[in-house]
Amino acid sequence: MSAGVPEGDGQGQDGAVDLVVAGAGGGLAGALRAAQAGLNVLVVDADEQFLRGNNTSMSTAMIPGAGSRWQRAAGIEDGPARFLADITTKTHGTADPALSAALAGISAPLVEWLADEAGLPLTLVTDFSYPGHSADRLHTVEGRHGSTLLRHLYERARSSPHIDLLVPARLADVERGPGGEITGAVLTYPGGREETVPARAVLLATNGYGADRELVGRHLPEIAKAEYHGGQFSRGDGLRIGQKHGAHADYLDAYQGHAALARRSRTLVGWATIMHGAVMVDRDGRRFGDETTGYSEYAAALAARPGARGWIVLDKRIHDLCLPFTDFRQTVDAGALTWADDPDGLAERTGCDANALNDAIAGQAAAARGAAEPDPYGRTFFEEPLRPPYAAVEVIPALFHTQGGLAVDEHARVLTEDRTPIPGLFASGGAAHGISGRGADGYLAGNGLLPALGLAWQAANTLSRTHAHGERLKHT
């Protein structure tokens, strides 16, 4: 790390870097791809603890790849068209069709590049399916945690002679030339010092605005009072910088919520519990919906229950199946689970109404055994009946990250109000407008990391093509 602008390989002969990446999360994929193409890159991040403090590091490291070689090896038929259909269904047709198609199309090449060129030890998740995905297409790393993913990207970036990292440094603005093209990145440092780094392009990979409570209250009132469980520097920097320079913003009402944040430990219980057969009850012990619709929209449903808290009820089988998740192991190690030999004992220990909790557990078991009467909330999948001993973990709703931002095209170029690209300005992840449609119920697992990694990768591809074209012109 450097306390000032590096004087090494990160700068071209005229003193300008080819690309400044603001945000050392998913933006590192763009830095690595640009470096692979021979471009000189400067990565800046305002958070000294970015390896464990940004949303990429806090994720479950699930990356969709529709039609990947891991799927082919497993005999899974999938492809961009099927993935796009799932996005369209989950978002009720409200997601940007062009961006959705582009990200679905690059998803398999992206995960294969991450494995082959960025060194990520990826495997395909086949032990359970996330809501909304009609095929097993999520790829992850050991431990299923973003900190492992980010550490790999960081170590690869550190070893590149074409990448310099500058932390802590915050992108405050960009400078543009007479033709509107990017000419520099304005950086600020702790203590207030400011300097401008000459640059040919800037990638806004600063995530969304989840840490800005005023913006959250304005755009996401239904989740504004919920716990925020995301990076502290996700303050809408990319959004403000882009809008200052005439960029269009869209889908600002979109977000990823989560209904499975453990109240005691503030760790993620994870929705694998639900997909393996667990149920969620409110503080009184009553189920209140079909939990398998999705963890994002269920955050708002939980927030609307008395006391805005509830319990996930599981058993030893589900407990053991979820241990591959680092987040779940942390929840267990923190002592957040309460165990009992029967529903009455569990009700006593949780404070739930015994009759209500008995009904919830008995109803789950009956539905899992194929009861003639359908589940009153429409849930069709329970895997297996819950069996004693039972466990419960108290959960609260949370906002994880926003899903709206600057409008971008399929090349990750930031667009103005009239849909014209701003030359040299790119956005990815939460700084871009994403593919989750409106509200919370359009979110599919991986909708955060795919735009974060994929759009950063696309920005580098776009920039490298432009650079190569320019080099060819200079030599003709």
TrEMBL record:
Keyword tags: FAD, Flavoprotein, Oxidoreductase
InterPro entries: FAD-dep_OxRdtase_2_FAD-bd, FAD-oxidoreductase_2, FAD/NAD-bd_sf, Succ_DH/fumarate_Rdtase_cat_sf
Domain FAD-dependent oxidoreductase 2 FAD-binding: 18-437
Record Pfam families: FAD_binding_2
Requisite cofactors: FAD
Official protein name in the record: FAD-dependent oxidoreductase
